[in-house]
């Protein structure tokens, strides 16, 4: 096994035991980037020399007994919405040409303090306003979409071109590309991970979280990221915690909610079969399955767009009026549409969110975790705009991908996607686990237990 193939947990163990040098690991991943990047386009920029210097410093520290923890010397990538002092934050947009960040974002600073080694910045759908990330190709099939908007981060992790990465999630932008590329993606509880220094799409829906190869890896990164920051007005004051899924797979006594409605409506049969099989495995591990009714489903799409579009429009108001031609057409049209929405529309969306949160809280009193598909279908072909379901319903691809992930953004509950198999074409399928606010430890426990029922994750062929 080459170093770039190691999970974060395995790499951290090898570095701590001095079986592997951070220099060897970083060089291996950089070599992998050279091989995969021309085919996949995951990165906006690769900071190879910076990474090599940081790896050398990490190796020196570890050799002299100054080991900072499991992220020390481990190479990672940041979605290009996340500020790193002195580097461009392009948001994959011509609007940001010439931009340089004045200082590190909170999450970049925390990863740096933990000793993680920055490899570079990964592509996003322009300003995170989309679900496909067209610049980047799926790690399992270059003719398919990567998913978005954190497509570059998910593809880099899936291909071995980063040991872990950060993404952002406003309507599914961590979980969608993670599911489509066969890796783990965690959208934390709203406010658990600070967003200071992260370009906003929609302030009341935005989250930052890890994309990793394993659930245990996600727990290690979340431990480094979580904690209050007064510079983010939504940041929770909950004390910092050590997130650890544990090594037990016994789920006896845990109640798994299986949706009767919504999450299995208009879903590819192979996706449904894989997710229901995975739910059956959770039951075999001792969990009790409880059928639940998802509340207020008819309002999900209207609430998501009713919140996101006006907030995005407000953020981009100045540049949209001065340099509209610099935006890609799909994003410009959505931003211009925001000006047609009234204050009343926005207030009604806020009211709907308040009611939805209350209804979800009541539902989550009955179960500990909800298990459902992460996305309704595997990665579609690049350029495909719609999907036609067996009942004749025609749905936009982006609408389909956001449909099952948006409820967790609206309500702010944590959501974890884990790989549960592949379809007949070899494309990954993901299962989504949703829990109570600050219920990350339970999600990680369930995700880890399921992970142990499957073979060790393999990297995408990236051919």
Automatic annotation (TrEMBL):
Alphabetized InterPro entries for the sequence: Amidase, Amidase_CS, Amidase_dom, AS_sf
Any single Pfam family the record assigns to this protein: Amidase
GO-annotated molecular function: transferase activity
Keywords, sorted A to Z: Transferase
Taxonomy, superkingdom: Bacteria
PROSITE patterns on file: AMIDASES
Domain annotation Amidase: ranges: 24-444
PANTHER family: AMIDASE AMID-RELATED (PTHR11895:SF176), TRANSAMIDASE (PTHR11895)
Protein name: Asp-tRNA(Asn)/Glu-tRNA(Gln) amidotransferase GatCAB subunit A
Biological source species: Streptomyces kaniharaensis
């Amino acid at each position: 096994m080459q170093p770039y193939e190691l999970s974060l947990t395995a790499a951290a163990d090898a570095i701590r035991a001095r079986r592997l040098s951070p220099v060897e690991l970083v060089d291996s991943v950089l070599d992998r980037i050279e091989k995969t990047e021309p085919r996949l386009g995951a990165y906006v920029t690769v900071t190879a020399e910076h990474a090599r210097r940081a790896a050398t410093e990490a190796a020196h520290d570890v050799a002299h007994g100054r080991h900072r923890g499991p992220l020390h010397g481990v190479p990672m990538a940041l979605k290009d919405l996340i500020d790193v002092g002195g580097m461009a934050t392009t948001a994959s947009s011509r609007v940001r040409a010439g931009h340089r960040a004045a200082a590190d974002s909170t999450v970049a600073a925390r990863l740096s303090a933990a000793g993680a080694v920055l490899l570079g910045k990964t592509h996003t759908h322009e300003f995170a306003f989309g679900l496909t990330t067209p610049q980047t190709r799926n790690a399992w099939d270059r003719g398919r979409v990567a998913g978005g908007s954190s497509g570059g981060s998910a593809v880099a992790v899936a291909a071995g071109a980063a040991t872990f990465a950060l993404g952002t999630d406003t309507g599914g932008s961590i979980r969608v590309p993670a599911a489509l590329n066969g890796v783990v993606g965690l959208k934390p509880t709203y406010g658990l991970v600070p967003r200071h220094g992260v370009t906003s799409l929609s302030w009341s829906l935005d989250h930052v979280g890890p994309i990793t190869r394993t659930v245990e890896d996600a727990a290690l990164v979340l431990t480094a990221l979580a904690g209050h920051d007064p510079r983010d007005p939504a940041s929770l004051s909950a004390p910092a915690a050590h997130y650890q899924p544990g090594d037990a797979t016994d789920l006896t006594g845990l109640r798994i909610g299986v949706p009767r409605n919504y999450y299995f409506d208009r879903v590819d049969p192979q996706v449904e079969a894989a997710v229901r099989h995975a739910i059956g495995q959770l039951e075999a591990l001792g969990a009790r399955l409880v059928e639940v009714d998802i509340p207020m489903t008819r309002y999900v799409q209207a609430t998501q767009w009713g919140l996101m579009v006006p907030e995005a429009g407000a953020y981009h108001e100045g540049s949209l009026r001065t340099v509209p031609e610099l935006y890609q057409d799909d994003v410009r049209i959505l931003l211009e549409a925001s000006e047609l929405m009234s204050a009343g529309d926005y207030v009604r969306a806020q009211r709907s969110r308040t009611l939805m949160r209350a209804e979800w809280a009541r539902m989550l009193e009955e179960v500990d975790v909800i298990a459902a598909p992460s996305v309704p279908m595997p990665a579609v072909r690049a350029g495909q705009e719609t999907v036609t379901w067996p009942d004749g319903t025609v749905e936009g691809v982006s609408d389909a991908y956001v449909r099952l992930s948006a409820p967790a953004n609206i309500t702010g509950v944590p959501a974890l996607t884990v790989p549960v198999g592949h379809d007949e074409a070899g494309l990954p399928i993901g299962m989504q686990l949703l829990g109570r606010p600050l219920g990350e430890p339970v999600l990680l426990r369930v995700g880890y237990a399921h992970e142990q029922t499957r073979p060790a994750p393999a990297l995408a062929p990236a051919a």
